[in-house]
Amino acid sequence: MELGRLEYLQALVTEFQVTDSTEAKEQVLANLANFAYDPGNYEYLRQLQVLDLFLDMLTEDNETLVEFAMGGLCNLCLDKTNKEYILEANGVEPVINCLSSSNEETVVSAVTTLMFLTTPRSRAQTTALPVVECMLRFSLSANTRLSNLASIFLQDYCSPLQVEEARNLSKHTAVGIPLPKD
C-alpha cells in the first residue's frame, strides 16, 4: 500500500514535469499541495523533491501556480525536517514576496507559513521591519481572515518594540505618492 502511494506521488511529479498544459500543471500542483497536508506523505514528498518544486513555483507569473505552491509549503512546514529544509533553501524570502500577491489565499498561506517558519534562528528574517509593516497594514484589512491572522502574527511573533518601530516608520512614509520626475 505504501509503495503505491510513493508511485502515485512520483506519477504526479512526473506529469507536472512533462506536461506543457498550464491547466494540467495547476491541477497537479493542487493535488500535490493537498497531499502535503498528510504527515504520512512528508517523507515521500521530500524524497521526490516536492519542497523544491513548491519553492520554485513561488516565483512564477501564474498566480494559480503560486497559490497552490504556497499552500503546499504551508502544509509542509509544520514538520521540523521540512521547516529546516525550507529555511536552509533560503525559502523565507520568496514566502515574504508572496505577501504582495493579489490572491487572498496566497497571502493567507504566506502569513501562516511565516508563522510556522519562525524559529530563534529565522526570527530576524521572518519579522524584519518590512514584514512587520506589512502585517500592520493587513491587521487593518476589511478581510477578517487576513486581519485576524496579521494581528496574531504581530502579537505572537513580533516584539512590542518591532511593532512600534514599524508604526512610527509607517507614519513617515508617503505610501502611494509618486516620486518626482527628473
Question: How would you describe this structure in keywords?
Answer:
single chain; 182 residues; mainly alpha; Leucine-rich Repeat Variant; 2 domains
**Describe the biggest sheet?**
none
Helical stretch tally? 12
Helix content: over 70%
State the CATH superfamily name of the largest domain: Leucine-rich Repeat Variant
Number of strands: 0
- Mean pLDDT reading: 92
CATH topology of the largest domain: Leucine-rich Repeat Variant
End-to-end gap: 67 Å
Uncertain ranges: 174-180
Structural class, by secondary structure, is: mainly alpha
Radius of gyration equals 18 Å
Lay out the secondary structure.
Blueprint: H1 2-18, H2 22-35, H3 42-47, H4 50-57, H5 63-76, H6 80-88, H7 92-97, H8 104-117, H9 123-126, H10 129-139, H11 144-157, H12 160-171
Helix pairs in contact: 1-2, 2-5, 4-5, 5-8, 8-11, 10-11, 10-12
